[in-house]
Each structure stands twice: as structure tokens, then as C-alpha cells.
Amino acid sequence: MTTTDTHCPYCALQCGMRLRRARPGTPAGAPSVEVDERPGFPVNEGALCGKGRTAPAVLARAARLTAPLVRDPRSGELCETSWERALDRVAAGLRESADRHGREAVGVFGGGGLTNEKAYLLGKFARVVLRTPNIDYNGRFCMASAAAAHRAAFGVDRGLPFPLEDVATTGCVILVGANPAETMPPALRYFTRMRAVGGRLIVVDPRRTRTAEHADLHLRPAPGTDLALALGLLHLVIADGRLDEEFIAARTTGFEQARAAAMAHWPERVEQITGVPVPAMREAARLFAAAPTGMVLTARGAEQHSKGTDTVRAWINLCLATGKAGRPGSGYGALTGQGNGQGGREHGQKADQLPGYRSLTDPAARAHVARVWGVDPADLPGPGASAYELLDRAGTAAGVRALLVMGSNPVVSAPHAAHVTERLTALDFLAVSDVVLSETAELADVVLPAAQWAEETGTTTNLEGRVILRQAALPPPDGVRTDLTVLRELAARLGHGQGFPDDPEEVFDELRRASAGGPADYAGITYARVRAENGVFWPCPGTTHPGTPRLFLDRFATADGRARFAAVTHRPAAEEPDADYPLHLTTGRVTAQYQSGAQTRRVPELNAAAPGPFVEVHPRLAERLGVTEGELLSVTSRRGRSLAPARITGTIRPDTVFMPFHWAGPGRANTVTNPALDPESKMPEFKVCAVRVEKAAPAGRERSAAS
User: Fold this and answer.
1) Are strands 33-36 and 402-406 parallel, antiparallel or unpaired?
2) What is the pLDDT of residue 31?
3) Which GO terms of the cellular component aspect does the record hold (predicted)?
4) Of the candidates 364, 239, 255, 375, the residue with the CA atom closest to the CA atom of residue 319
5) Strands, E, within 32-170: which ranges?
6) Which of 74, 117, 640, 666 has the most CB within a 10 Å radius?
């Protein structure tokens, strides 16, 4: 029976799996492949979560797009059409806006699930064909703050500067705003193995999640106060004489300024800000500093804030002060969320970056990439608007008037989502390339049906910096094309018949040349090596280079080889609770759904496990509201209102409510979230805003808010 070794299409673990052709007798319309374990791939060792096991369900024709759609100007409906007509219409829409309003009136919005080849060619398409600065992607909503902090402290951004296997051998892990037991279940084995050999796990999260249930110590700060907590722990490390002064002197700079900032955050002050008791803080500082090795791992709970970059840098300070960085078994890392969130930001999808993680404002970087592309460096546009800024201005005189969206669903995933929907509706032209008819695609003038993970070959880069290869197991159905083919055809219609191949290996070979010598150097990585070696870690500057599983062991990637402390200080969230909006809202994921849910909400098994939105409320808050389990609640912020049933649980703080963000419609959590941006990373403040919660009133009646 034919089998194909490949990888899961969902989270950044990029778990290995094996696909085999479906058995004879499979019902008509069902997926033609089934999932088997692939125990030889080291990240997951054969284990898969429910999303991975059911991934082929979205390959079924009934779950997906199978023909291009064009909006009929008379009826306003999306109607099936030919590929030729659809592509002609997209090219015309982009060209007309550029001719009428200038090149900056055209934009591209990509996705963290696109392969490296697609991300690379999409960036090239924007800058060479459209010659617009306006390209960004939904990874800006995922990894931007951790990436900015990583670059500032260490000189380069790779989510984990060590392989996941190192987690199992370290002495202590502080896990901040991360819930891998639900968001990437196969990764939990590494924390379990660590504890089995005496390592300690500290979880920082306002909710008692499934991950927190495994912790030796659970700290529950109020949402938006992780920065203060990190500073308080560093204060205790300094005050208790637990610094690694030799490491600080030999391998870092900026400690004295960081010390002064931390000493202004004494434990009692931090307890007032965070709600974490001083004894618990002292125990956390002791456990981490006393361990021979240790790691701090952050995720979106710490990063999706208007001060997310400073928050991550404060946690990095704790690693540096205790000598737990740049050494085997130690370091800071970010648990990347999206499947190719790492590679997607390395090769040109971000507004300010060129392939190889090069800066768009660096003349040498521009010259190198321009040579590979065969263009004049002066013709490459400069940096454009970040993701939310691009969406916020769409359809206005100051923003883009035509937009191509590839593999993203901002109508559900962006903050202040009702406003984003209005802006997309105001565009002169919107084209969407996607696997399914997402909520964003429903607004489009043209929808292009894209091939999926099992139907096309391409690389992604997982959270460890391991470049892996998804291999096609079957052809896409009639009527469906790959995104690479779409870009080739659009480029040709817009006057660029060369330079946009749709063979993924040919694209990857060009990517290798474009990245050569850059911070994310893929020059020595080939498809053959990735197949033979279970992936290759970047940087890998030559084909005889072994790759780099562990960064920073000899020096950090800064000009002088030293890591940088940051003199950061706590500041409140952009929006704190008040008399009108007295509660914190925080958002996140559930095990059975993924990101905006555009694909997972089409899988019956996953919908049975997580059928819809909900609002977690503490029993004391439920009592004040007079609400019982399952009753409909209204969650209102200054931006709008969401409606979802109550889920009463003692695992959340009494001053906080939680909503998952996977659903559209009345239960859309991002209707109420705050688009306030981190000034450095441009990350929106998804993880905390002020809300009012009340029982959903019958028509014409009002209910009093919880206070």
C-alpha cells in the first residue's frame, strides 16, 4: 500500500505523520488518505493530537473549495467561474487600484501556515511585481513580540534556540502564558520526562489550565501583569544573592541598568500589581536560580500585549542573570503557535523583512536579494504597514484599496474584528486564496481554491528552527491549484512572465540563494538532506554544514557576541478595568480547534469535542450575575459585544473571564479585543481588555453588570 511521510498541517510542532491511501470501500466523498503514526520523527515520536489524526477530513470535497468564485455584480453572490476568468479578474483588480491610486494602494496579507516556498514567493510578488511596501501576515499576531525581544537580546530570532529534546533534561522550566497540554499536546511529554528525572515545572497563567495541573508551582497573576512578575522574580534573585556574576561579566552587557529597574519592583509591590503572593514568588525564584540548568518558555499569554516585547525581555533578563542562556540545557525560548510561524517571518512576508531574516532597510541586504531577483535595489520598496495597521486603514485614502489575502482569516483572527470586517468590506477589490470558504473569503470579489498540505510539497520551519518537508501524497482535485501556481499566473498577467516558478523545489533553491549569509541562512539545506536527516536546523550555510540545533553556545549573535539585558519597567495594560467595564477578558485556544477555526470547524469529530464558543466565569462571579451553567452571557467592551454560554469553573480568577477565539458570529471573541499595539513589535493586545459581563437580556430588557 502506498504511503507518504509528511507532517501535520496545524501547529508549530509540525508533528511527523504517515499518510496512506484509504482502504477499498471508503465512502464516496470521504478523504482518499488516512493517517498512520510515524514514530521515527523525533519531535512527536508518532504521537498525534485529535487535530492531526483528523486532518484528512478537510481534504474531502464537501469540506472545501473546489472551483474559483467571482462575485456577480448584479446579484452580489459568489458564483463559480473558470480559472482564467478568476485570475484575469484578480490581476485587473490589483492593476486598476495601482493605476488609479498608486502602488501603495495595493497590499498583500499572508499567513503563518504557508510553506516557506509560498511565503518567499509571496514576498517577492509584492515587492517585484506589485512593487508595494504593504505586505504583512497573521504571524504578526503570533510571534512578533517574542521575535523583537529575541533579536534585541541575542541578535537573532529563532523560537527555540535548542531542540525540544533539551526540555526533558533541564532542571527547571518557567512556562509563561503557555498551555501546551491543550495547544500542542504531543509536546507535553517533554515536560513530563523532565519532572520524572527531578526537574521542576513552574507555570505562570491566570487560569488553572491542563498544563498548570502538571506544575510543581502555579503562579496566577492578573492578566497584563507578567512584566511586573518577571521583574519581581529578578529582584528576589538579586536580593538573595543568587546571581551568576561570572556569566554576567563574561557574556552579557547592560546588567546594571536592568538591576536598577528590577530593584524598583520589590516583592510587596509586585504582589499588589499581580496578585501573586510573596511566598510563591520567593519559591519560584529559589527553584529557578538553584537549578543547575533552566529555561523560560513564553507563549501568547505573555506576548500578546501592548508591552509584550518588554515582558519577554524581562523574562530573558531572568535567564541571563542566573546564567541560564547560551549553555547546554538552558535558555529562553518562545513556543511558536502557527505551523510555519517561524519560517513565515524569515523569508519576506513581514512588512520590514527580506528573505533570510534580512532587514529591508539594510543596503547590503537589499543589494543581495535584488541580485538574486534580478532587479535594481532601488526598485525594492521600503517597509510597509504592520498587519493590524494595514487592516485598520484598508479602504481609506491612507490605506490599501485592493488586497490579496493568502491563507489567513482576519475577519475572525484580528482584534476589533467588527472594525476589520468593515474595512475589508470598504475595499475596492478583495481577493482571497484559501482552502475553504472562510469568513474573510465570504467578503471577497474573487475566491481562489488552494491545494492543501497533503496535495503539495513544500518546507516549513518548526518551533525549534528545524526545516522539515511536507510531501504530497495525492494530487489536488480538479478545479484546485497551488498557491505557487496562482502567484506564477498572476505575475505573468502583470508583466512578469519569468521568476515565479510553481515547482516548490525550484522555489526553495532560489530561497536558499536569497537567504545565504543572512541571519536565517538556509543555503546548505536541500530537499534531499531534509528527507534523509529528519529535518535540518538553521543556520546551515553550506551543504557540508551539519546545521545548528543549539544556538549561542559559543557566542550570541550580536556584534560583540554578548547578550543584552534590558532596563524595562512595568506599566499597566492599555485598557484596565473600571466602573463601566470592571472585569478582565483574556482569550486563548481549546484542544479540538485551531486558530480561526476555518478548517477545524469543518471536522465533525473536532466539533463534537468543541462545538462552540463559551465564557469561563468563576463561581463567585456567576453567583453575582445570577447565572447558571450554559446560560447565555453578554461580554461587552468599548469595541463591541460577544454572546456565548457560561462555563462555570474554579480554574479562573474571580476578576477574569476567558473566551476561546475560534468562532465567528455572535460568539466571536475578537469582536471585543483591544487593537492597542506594542510600539516595537506592533503586536495587538489580544490577551487582556476591560469588559462588562451580564446575562444576555431578552429583547427590550436590560440587565445589571457584574462589578
Assistant:
1) unpaired
2) 77
3) membrane
4) 255
5) 33-36, 69-71, 78-80, 106-110, 135-137
6) 117
Q: How far apart are CA 690 and CA 574, in angstroms?
A: 9
28 pLDDT above the threshold of 80: no
What are 135-183's pLDDT values in tens digits?
999 999 988 999 999 999 999 999 999 999 999 999 999 999 999 999 9
Q: For 299-331, what is each residue's pLDDT tens digit?
A: 999 999 999 999 999 999 999 999 999 999 999
Count, residues in the chain:
707
For the chain, what is the largest distance between any 2 Cα atoms, rounded to a whole number of angstroms?
75
Strands 106-110 and 135-137: parallel
- Could you report the per-residue pLDDT of 620-676, keeping only the tens digit for each? 999 999 999 999 999 999 999 999 999 999 999 999 999 999 999 999 999 999 999
By percentage, how much of the chain surpasses pLDDT 70? 98
DSSP result, 467-521: EEEE---SPPPTT-B-HHHHHHHHHHHTT--SS----HHHHHHHHHHHHTTSSS-
Kindly give the pairing relationship between strand 640-648 and strand 632-637. antiparallel
Give mean pLDDT, residues 397-424. 97
CA dihedral 294, 233, 305, 123 (to 10 degrees): -30
In angstroms, the Cα distances linking 73 to 148, 445, 446 are: 44, 9, 12
Q: How far apart are the first and last CA of the chain?
A: 62
Helix count and strand count (H, E) for the chain: 23, 30
List of E strands, 369-474: 402-406, 429-434, 446-449, 458-461, 466-470
Three-state DSSP class for 667?
helix
What are phi and psi for residue 74, nearest 5 degrees?
A: -85, -50
All 3 cell numbers of residue 11? 501547529
